[in-house]
Structures are given as C-alpha cells and as structure tokens.
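FW: tagging you since you asked about this chain on Friday. Here's the raw sequence from the shared folder, copied in full. Didn't touch anything.
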Amino acid sequence: MPVDLRATKDGVQFALRVQPRASRTALAGTIGEAIKLAITAPPVEGKANQAVVDFFAKLFGVSKSSVEIVSGETGRNKLVRVRGITLEQARHALDV
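HL: got it, structure written out here
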C-alpha cells in the first residue's frame, strides 16, 4: 500500500507511525499508508515529539517551526504537516 502524502496549500501532510526508544533514529519503512520512524527518544515529556520535529526539519531542510504534529501528540500514530516543501520534494526525501 503506498504512503498517503497529501499536498496542502503551503506544504505536505502525511501519516506517521513512531517507534520510540529505538537503537537509532531513522526511517524504518512503512506501515499501511503511514511512514514508520524509529527514534531514540523516550515517549515522555514531549521528547519523542521533539525528536520527530527535529528529524523531519533536518530531512527536509526546513526550520523546526515548519514541522507541525497536527494530531496524535500523545500516541504513536501521528499526522505531520511540513510547510515550505512540495509533494515531489517530500517523495524524494522520503524515498516513496
């Protein structure tokens, strides 16, 4: 099943499945229509969410303020919006 990347008026939005407390932070494939991201940060005090924002800001070459967790802040399944990139840039960076 392909990843569901959606263009928004100012960027791209996609579903994300987070695996906290991994041995390293890296993209780890897909689960259904969601991108899987393994992160080293624990899921406490917003550390995992900050790691998600940091990772995608660096991956897409945008500021941290351009990466927003739209929903799922307290769970593993999240909806992420990245402003300032195109659908094609997102596909290339995510390799999907």
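FW: The first helix runs from residue 47 to 60.
HL: agreed, and The first strand starts at residue 5 and ends at 8.
FW: great, closing this out.
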